[in-house]
């Protein structure tokens, strides 16, 4: 039956919930942390030669981090809460060849006053920034910039630091036109102060590359990263983790530009540097491994993706154990990859273990539990399809197991959405936490997918029963698909998630399945109402397809 074949083709292409690739690299910026004052500096060049020197003058030392950080004197690197993190504060440049920048002479008293004010404005601005008080933070950063100019002169590296802080704030506010000239000026001042090949210039170029990457200005980002990589390779050497950081981000840019082979090599090398440096189990390395696995999945290199996911799961089991959701998610991702490879037995075993772990860690009616049940049901349906030519009874038994899992998934998702729907004041929804909205969006997707899968299951079971000479009506299949369509209209309309293209794609799938089912059942004696229903479905299919097509054109 053409409907069954098309439906199972759809089922086979279902993959783990998409982890937006942009989450790996988008919105993640690095910034320079500048420290000045009397210090004994220990830094390392290439092959392990450690050098120490003391200076009474003021120096600037640029540290890199994978977090959004604010620049200040003698302060630790602090994460900006709204920016996904990748690196920690230990990712600093130990190889800076420090030289005196600005010796305080005649105006030392005035300069010290300006230095003190600059420090206070910068530190307080940073604190406000991290609290999300951007308007207040902007005022303090502007004051810090003024103090730096008056105390050190307009071309001093302290001014570059102030420019960089202000640029980071504008980036978070998405005021990109304001941010870009500040980033560029910071780079220019550092080049004038230290020369174009200085490590601090490399750090600033990395920051600028991140800024361009966030906006998908890929060619500009590539040029910044390539220049930064050249500087870091010369100063830090091939085995330095900060060199690996820029290498990785350059790899993400090349991947987005379609240069997959070069991208993959850079990302693999960046991971190897971390592993060789004893950081193979770090959060940084795990995130890069996940990104590499996504590249393999997108290019349909499932076996390579499986190997990477097994490596990730092994690390998570050793470091966190099965009491951690991070381990459960790693195991689930591997299970879904195994499903794509056709290894249904191992996939089901792993997904069932994930289900038991989730029930222990979370409430039994948590939306993640519903998703887990949906994944298990899909594996059982695929296994049933394998058994249909071998043993019809076992194939039906597998479908019955899948139906039970789908029923539980539907019940949980419906409960989450009903709870949300009871909120009489719609503004209460929009004022809800990001996590609440995320759960509601996930609940609607899981509800649609589960009902869609249930409709497919009932169609398949009907065919199996008919192959044994038993009659089975299509009522239950049609009922599930009607519920799928009604759920989209009931819970999607009036909310931001209604416009989600992924939800509309699932809704479209329900429409097409139901239309095909009704069309195949229509005869000359069919009631006019069923013909009218079919026409309504066809019209809605055209409408949704047009919306998705228009959205795709706008995105491109």
Question: What is the secondary structure topology, with strand pairs?
Answer:
Blueprint: H1 2-12, H2 22-25, E1 33-35, E2 39-45, E3 49-55, E4 61-63, H3 108-130, H4 134-152, H5 157-172, H6 176-194, H7 199-214, H8 218-236, H9 241-256, H10 260-276, H11 283-298, H12 302-319, H13 325-341, H14 344-361, H15 367-387, H16 392-421, H17 426-430, H18 434-467, H19 475-492, H20 501-521, H21 528-555
Antiparallel strand pairs: 1-4, 2-3
CA radius of gyration is 29 Å
Q: Got a strand count?
A: 4
* Residues in helix, %: 55-70%
Structure class? mainly alpha
- Please write the CATH class name of the largest domain: Mainly Alpha
Strand order, biggest sheet? 1-4
Number of domains: 2
SSE string = HHEEEEHHHHHHHHHHHHHHHHHHH
Spatial gap, N to C terminus: 37 Å
Q: pLDDT below 50 for ≥5 consecutive residues: which ranges?
A: 10-110
CATH architecture of the largest domain: Alpha Horseshoe
CATH homologous superfamily descriptor of the largest domain: Tetratricopeptide repeat domain
Round the mean pLDDT to the nearest integer and report it. Answer: 78
| Count of separate DSSP helical elements | 21
User: How would the global form be characterised?
Assistant: elongated
- What CATH calls the topology of the largest domain is Serine Threonine Protein Phosphatase 5, Tetratricopeptide repeat
Share of β-strand residues: under 5%
Q: Main beta sheet: strand number and arrangement?
A: 2 strands, antiparallel
Protein name: Kinesin light chain 3
């Amino acid at each position: 039956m053409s409907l069954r074949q098309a439906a199972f083709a759809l089922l086979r292409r279902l993959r783990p919930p998409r982890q937006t690739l942009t989450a790996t690299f988008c919105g993640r910026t690095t910034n320079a942390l500048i420290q000045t004052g009397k210090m004994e500096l220990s830094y390392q060049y290439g092959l392990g030669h450690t050098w120490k020197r003391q200076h009474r003058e003021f120096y600037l030392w640029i540290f890199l981090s994978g977090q959004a950080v604010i620049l200040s004197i003698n302060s630790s690197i602090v994460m900006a809460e709204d920016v996904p993190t990748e690196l920690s504060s230990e990712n600093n440049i130990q190889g800076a060849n420090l030289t005196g920048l600005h010796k305080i002479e005649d105006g030392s008293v005035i300069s010290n006053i300006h230095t003190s004010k600059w420090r206070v404005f910068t530190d307080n601005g940073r604190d406000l920034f991290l609290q999300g008080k951007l308007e207040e933070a902007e005022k303090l950063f502007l004051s810090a910039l003024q103090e730096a100019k008056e105390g050190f002169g307009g071309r001093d590296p302290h001014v570059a630091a102030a420019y960089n802080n202000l640029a980071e704030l504008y980036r978070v506010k998405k005021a990109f036109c304001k941010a870009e000239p500040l980033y560029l000026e910071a780079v220019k001042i550092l080049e004038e102060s230290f020369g174009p090949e200085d490590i601090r210039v490399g750090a600033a170029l990395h920051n600028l590359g991140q800024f361009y990457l966030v906006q998908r200005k890929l060619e500009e980002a590539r040029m910044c990263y390539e220049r930064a990589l050249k500087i870091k390779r010369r100063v830090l050497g091939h085995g330095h983790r900060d060199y690996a950081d820029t290498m990785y981000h350059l790899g993400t840019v090349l991947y987005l530009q379609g240069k997959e082979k070069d991208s993959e090599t850079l990302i693999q090398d960046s991971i190897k540097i971390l592993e060789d440096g004893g950081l193979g189990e770090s959060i940084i390395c795990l995130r890069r491994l996940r990104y590499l696995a996504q590249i393999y999945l997108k290019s349909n290199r499932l076996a390579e993706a499986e190997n990477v996911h097994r490596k990730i799961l092994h690390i998570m089991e050793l470091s966190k154990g099965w009491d951690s959701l991070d381990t459960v998610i790693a195991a689930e991702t591997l299970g879904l990859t195994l499903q794509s490879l056709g290894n249904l037995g191992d996939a089901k075993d792993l997904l069932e273990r994930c289900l038991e772990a989730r029930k222990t860690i979370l409430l039994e009616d948590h939306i993640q539990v519903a998703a887990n049940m949906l994944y298990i049901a899909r594996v059982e349906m695929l296994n049933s399809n394998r058994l249909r030519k071998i043993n019809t009874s076992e194939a039906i038994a597998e479908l019955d197991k899948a139906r039970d899992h789908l029923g539980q998934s539907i019940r949980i998702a419906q409960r989450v959405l009903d709870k949300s729907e009871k909120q009489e004041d719609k503004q209460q929804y929009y004022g809800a936490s990001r996590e609440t909205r995320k759960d509601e969006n996930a609940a609607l997707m899981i509800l649609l997918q589960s009902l869609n899968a249930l409709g497919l299951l009932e169609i398949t079971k009907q065919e199996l029963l008919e192959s044994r000479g038993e009659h089975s009506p299509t009522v239950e299949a049609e009922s599930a698909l009607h519920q799928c369509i009604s759920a989209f209209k009931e819970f999607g309309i009036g909310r931001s998630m209604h416009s989600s293209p992924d939800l509309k794609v699932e809704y479209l799938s329900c429409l097409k399945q139901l239309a095909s089912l009704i069309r195949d059942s229509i005869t000359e004696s069919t009631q006019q109402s069923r013909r009218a229903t079919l026409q309504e479905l066809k019209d809605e299919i055209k409408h949704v397809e047009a919306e998705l097509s228009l959205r795709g054109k706008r995105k491109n």
